[in-house]
Specification:
By secondary structure, the chain is α/β, with parallel strands linked by helices. 49% of the residues lie in helices and 12% in strands. The strands form two sheets. It has a six-stranded parallel beta sheet with strand order 3-2-4-1-7-8, sandwiched between helices. A two-stranded antiparallel sheet has the order 5-6.
Length: 297
Amino acid sequence: MKKLIILVGPTGSGKTHVSIELAKTFGCEIINGDSVQVYKRLDIGSAKIKESDMMGVKHHLLDMKDPKDNYSVFEFQKDVRKLIEEIKLPMIVGGTGFYINAAISKFEFVEEKRDASFDLDHETYSNLELYQKLIKLDPDIIIDGNNRRRVLRALEQAMAGTPRSTKNKKDERLFDPLIIYLDLDKDILTKRLNLRLEKQLEEGFIEEVKALKEEGIIINAIGYREINRYLDGLLTYDEMKEEIIKVSRKLAKKQKTYFINQMKPLVYNALSDTLIDDLKKAIKAYVEEDDERNSNT
């Protein structure tokens, strides 16, 4: 099976710096695994790597879509699988666990005909309420909770006694990945998030959101959503900052739970003095596994 490295972790865990160090050592090309960074002009808020920081390492799936367009997990899955096959040693870097897992596992998206009356019966439900109702009936499901159409279909299946999770072999991998999770103490993570937000605001995060807003583009992602509320006068400046940190911490907790439970990674302390050396040793051993196996046969 094709080998690839997957480097994941919560927002602010230092994935970008680590990925460049590892990619330079092992000749990797990096595939973006963040669902926001695929869009052009969402630079500051998504903490997108600058070209000057890439150190010559080739990156894929960055700045490929206009923010007015939609880029689904199904499209991501197809694009990533194609890149994995084309690149000698690919490295996926990001924090969108559902997207990454869908790309590397035998999880297929199947569109089926719908009963319109089911949607009408649930039109007063928010996306979150629909998702919560779904996971009570189908706790093993892997699905984009913000994709209302898919959640409704999965809910319809679950209520009919045929939960979607039983149809998808989500635990079977198409590739042979080495999955690395960078862990951070929650208090240290909060400090990092605060520092990063201050830097983003200094770099023009509000102006980035305002320019998009003036074109009628409203981005429903952390930071962008809260700044739009600030621009609409619904939050004060301090309330906006507080809300961004609050939801970022919630996301980090959700990311950790997902990665640990669904993807079974090797966990490393993101602040370890020996982190880079430890990761290089682990990757070297992983890459050389086949050579050792072949030499023993």
